[in-house]
Amino acid sequence: MELEQPIPRNTPNVQKLSSFSLETTNTYTSRSTTSSKTTSHSTSYNDLCNRSESFRTLEMGIPKDVSPEKRLAWLRSQIVGNGVEFDSPFGKRTLTYADHTASGKSLHYIENFIIDNVLPFYGNTHTCDSYVGQRTTKMLHEATQYIKKCLGGGLDDAIIFCGSGTTAAIKRLQETVCIAVPSIMRDRLIKCLTNEERWVVFVGPYEHHSNLLSWRQSLAEVIEIGTDDAGLIDMEALEERLSVYRNANRPILGSFSACSNVTGICSDTRGIAPLIHKYGGFVCFDFAASGPYTDIDMRSGEMDGYDAIFLSPHKFLGGPGSPGILLMSKALYQLRSSPPSTCGGGTVSYVNGFNEKSRGGCACAGPYGHFLLNINQTTSLAIRSAIQKGYVGVKPGWTRISFPYYMSEEEFEFILAAVEFIAIYGQRFLPLYHFNWKNGNWTFKKKAFKDLPLACGGRIVNKHTSYLEMAKNIANLLPKFPSQRKLPEDLDHNLLYFRV
Predict the structure, then answer these.
(1) Per-residue confidence at 102, pLDDT binned at 50, 70, 90?
(2) E strand residue ranges, 367-406
């Protein structure tokens, strides 16, 4: 994507490249070492901008001959909020962000480019009659073609920016194949379809709710494929179910997660694609979880190619604020002689593998959670019943952490040590929190903490090692086996998968 030269700017909120010397040899070489910061004989951020041939050169932010270690060090320095502190119940702490699977972080140099080169000349992209409209439209088209090329799209593919992630991208695909309908109309419309008109959609065992619930609520017949002994999509079961529809003369589509957003297990996309195509179907993949870390080559039209891919660019480093991406083969488009799908997802509290559901907020991987936690249908329905009584806090779950390539080794080691600390001492801290059975929220009890004979009080702690030392001091003042708090009388105690 060849855009105009970025305008150099001086701004106090941007850490200069000079913070990381391009000539120093200190890198993250061991568990205890960190990069050296120096300001001598270094290249400034603005100098780099001036030397760049185009915005494309700024993709890595620094010249290509710089070592990977120094590139990552500079990249970390550009993360918005890097090193920021917040007031925790135990004093000030440096923010350690470890949910990159949910969303990436913004980058100063990208935000500055937008502020200096895009927003001042921003205009409506639907017109080229003005300077700002023409300039913005040109940049949009350049970006569109560049993204399409990066994803392996061709002339027979269409790229659509929609909503804020894969939820919107999947919904848009469903609209283009004419199976997305209001839930209140679903049952009536299904009765009007002939068997040959109704799509058969295959989904995997570890789908995000975006790639499961929306298909269930569409006009399609949804076939869920389980896991094999290795925890991957069961290819034998998939082919067995596909063979049932070999001569049914029904449209077939497979929509699978390329990677689980819970465990990180990756699907064999190049193995699944030819199997679906063998039976005359289309195959789509949700790259929301793995998109920032893997190469994507669509190659639609080939036996092992993809007919559609879904992306959530806000999960990329530098991606917050970007729209969802649907890249699809034009062969999937069913509205050629009709108006477009858009002229001019929702939330649930509990989802299981038995097509039972209820309303509210959730972990977005209910059926896979049932599999991982070995929850059977009887227990699942009992949990659902408890939630409907108002006990949302009974819902089982997990804590997810992620380690992106740009995380420092110091942060990585700190997170591992923190997880180990929680495994050993976590239950001791339960008396310091109030648990709300109605909404599942934990609230810190300030008075309970103040009553502890803690010598360090609320002093500011700046180092990760000090955080853990202070946490151990607090843990040693707390009972090793705190008493179980009182449970609601009308709640089945056997439903609890965790200590409260």
Answers:
(1) very high
(2) none
pLDDT at position 123, please?
Answer: 87
Question: pLDDT digits over 253-271, tens only?
Answer: 999 999 999 999 999 999 9
By the 8 A CB rule, do 419 and 52 touch?
no
Q: Which residues contact 344 (CB under 8 A, 6 or more apart)?
A: none
Fold of the 154-332 domain? Aspartate Aminotransferase; domain 2 (3.40.640)
Evaluate whether 267 touches 289 at the Cβ level (below 8 Å). no
Report long-range pairs for 35-41 (Cβ below 8 Å, ≥24 apart).
35/69, 35/70, 35/73
Name the token pair of 388. Answer: 């409907």
Q: How confident is the model at residue 491 (pLDDT cuts 50, 70, 90)?
A: confident
The separation between CA 223 and the C-alpha centre of its own chain, rounded to angstroms, equals 25
pLDDT of residue 371: 80
Q: Return the pLDDT at 372.
A: 80
Residue the block writes with tokens 């390329």: 258
Distance CA 214, CA 236 (A): 26
Task: Provide CB contacts within 8 A for 141, sequence distance 6+.
Answer: none
pTM: 0.69
Helix, strand, coil share of the chain (percent; to 5) = 35, 10, 50
Cβ atoms 261, 208 nearer than 8 A: yes
Write down the mean pLDDT value for the chain.
80
**Which tokens go with 241?**
């179910």
Strands 221-224 and 252-257: unpaired
First to last CA, the chain: 53
Nearest to 382 by CA among 488, 498, 496, 213: 496
Confidence at residue 339, expressed as pLDDT on a 0 to 100 scale: 53
Average the pLDDT over 138-153 and give the result: 94
Residue 288's nearest CA partner among 319, 265, 257 is 257
| CA separation, residue 496 to residues 104, 352, 361, 390, 489 (Å) | 33, 17, 19, 15, 13
| H or E segment to which residue 99 belongs | none
| Alpha carbon distance 74, 109 (integer Å) | 11
Enumerate the domain spans of the chain. Answer: 53-151, 154-332, 374-495
For residue 43, is pLDDT > 60? no
DSSP string over 5-71: PPPP---TTS--GGGS-SS------SSS-------SS---HHHHHHH-SSGGGGGSSS-TTS-HHHH
Q: How many residues does the chain have?
A: 500
- The helix-helix angle for 409-425 and 464-476 (nearest 10°) equals 10
Residue 371's nearest CA partner among 487, 212, 200, 242 is: 212
d(CA 283, CA 38): 51
Q: What percent of the chain has pLDDT over 70?
A: 78
